Write a sequence for this structure.
């Protein structure tokens, strides 16, 4: 009889030691964890940017919203860090977001064309790096007008710890041909993917239903066809 009473007392103690959390507390903890994760991700890993101009046509359209990987270019001190972390050096051809050298509060997005120490030359609008021709399939033929002095002839040696940045639409891009190379410390990250595309200029409410369907169709094709870099 005594042992049964003792068993009952133990069960009472155990049930009282671990009270169930309320539904409100569960939801609050979940929301807090999500908020902390989002804040951490936006501060150290990802950034959202919107394309405001046509300097990167046809790779990026006006109104594209892109996700930027801010962690990929993070500095490392040891070989083991580079082997286990998703980081790598800046490569020629990367589409990168960086602080505009003259106005660091403004972000620009261009393609990395020249690495530190590279000898960059344009001959009749075509790119040569260290004396060798470089094919640029991302530049449309109509975007290399030879009547533009910038496209016709341009020559530079990229300084140490700096990068040469150009837009894919060579006729419309304000880039390193005008304001020089970009120091490594101003580069924020690499464009990872296009997650949404919205042309505000075309969406003024006057399109017909057929035009709206065609517009959304082109955005879907653009998203799935060129969503990654």
């Amino acid at each position: 009889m005594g042992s049964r009473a003792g068993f009952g007392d133990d069960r009472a103690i155990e049930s009282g030691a671990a009270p169930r959390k309320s539904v409100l507390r569960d939801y609050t903890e979940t929301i807090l964890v999500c908020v902390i994760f989002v804040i951490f991700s936006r501060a150290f890993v990802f950034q959202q940017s919107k394309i405001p101009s046509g300097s990167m046509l046809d790779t990026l359209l006006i109104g594209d919203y892109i996700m930027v990987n801010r962690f990929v270019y993070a500095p490392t001190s040891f070989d083991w860090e580079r082997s286990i972390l998703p980081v790598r050096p800046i490569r020629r051809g990367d589409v990168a977001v960086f602080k505009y050298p003259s106005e660091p509060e403004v972000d620009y997005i261009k393609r990395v064309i020249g690495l530190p120490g590279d000898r960059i030359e344009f001959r009749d609008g075509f790119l040569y790096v260290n004396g060798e021709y470089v094919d640029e399939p991302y530049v449309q033929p109509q975007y290399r007008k030879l009547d533009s002095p910038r496209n016709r002839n341009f020559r530079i040696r990229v300084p140490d710890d700096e990068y040469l940045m150009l837009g894919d639409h060579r006729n419309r891009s304000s880039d390193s041909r005008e304001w020089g190379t970009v120091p490594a410390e101003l580069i924020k990250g690499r464009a990872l993917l296009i997650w949404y595309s919205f042309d505000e200029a075309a969406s003024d409410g006057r399109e017909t239903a057929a035009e709206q369907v065609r517009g959304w169709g082109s955005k879907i094709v653009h998203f799935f066809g060129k969503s990654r870099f």
Summary: Residues 134 and 140 are 14 Å apart (CA to CA). The two ends are 75 Å apart (CA to CA). The longest strand covers residues 103-114. The helical segments are 2-17, 23-44, 79-84, 149-152, 176-179, 209-225.
